[in-house]
Amino acid sequence: YAEMLSRIRDSAYLQADESPIPVLTSQTPGSTHKGYQWVFHLPKSKLVVFQYHQSRSKSVPTEVLAGFNGCLQTDGYAGYKDVVQRKDITHIACMAHARRKFEAAQENDPDRAHHALVEFQKLYAIERYGKKNELSADQIQVVRQQEATPVLDALRGWMEDQYTQVLPKSAIGKAIAYSLNLWPKLTLCTRNGEWRNDNNAVE
Length: 203
Description:
Blueprint: H1 2-10, E1 13-24, E2 32-42, E3 47-53, H2 59-64, E4 71-73, H3 81-84, E5 90-92, H4 95-104, H5 110-132, H6 137-163, H7 171-181, H8 183-186
Parallel strand pairs: 1-4, 4-5
Antiparallel strand pairs: 1-2, 2-3
């Protein structure tokens, strides 16, 4: 494990996620308690490290990522806040999580949710094009800057305009706020073709 931990800390680009899992309780046969499987993924080497903890506390990523100074991609969970605020870490958010907020808002506001989802589809079509044509990281970066950036700029402008017209606590209001709050981190992948636009691989 020490070797895996060292590889995590030495990596230039890392994805992280945590998932709740039921764990059998030895004191009461047949009963379970909630634990968490923390997952750390190195996309370049495809190495995946699993670490079980009883807690979802911020102390876990703080400990595991001590000494890490690369690019870290996570969802919007606040448990990573202390780590990503460090000056030696570049934090990327997950576009899939932003898209899911709009999927969840379709019942609340189908028209606005549909518009956002169509724009997200355009962004994912660009990613599929790069993968299908086996583009290099440099080529992917160029394609993103030329094709994804205009879509992102238009989507942000639309969200900023629409947010003034919706109830902040509604599903669509929360979806827009989630994306706008993370916007700089959601769009960082346009600067580096090595970085992915979402965290799906680790999830």
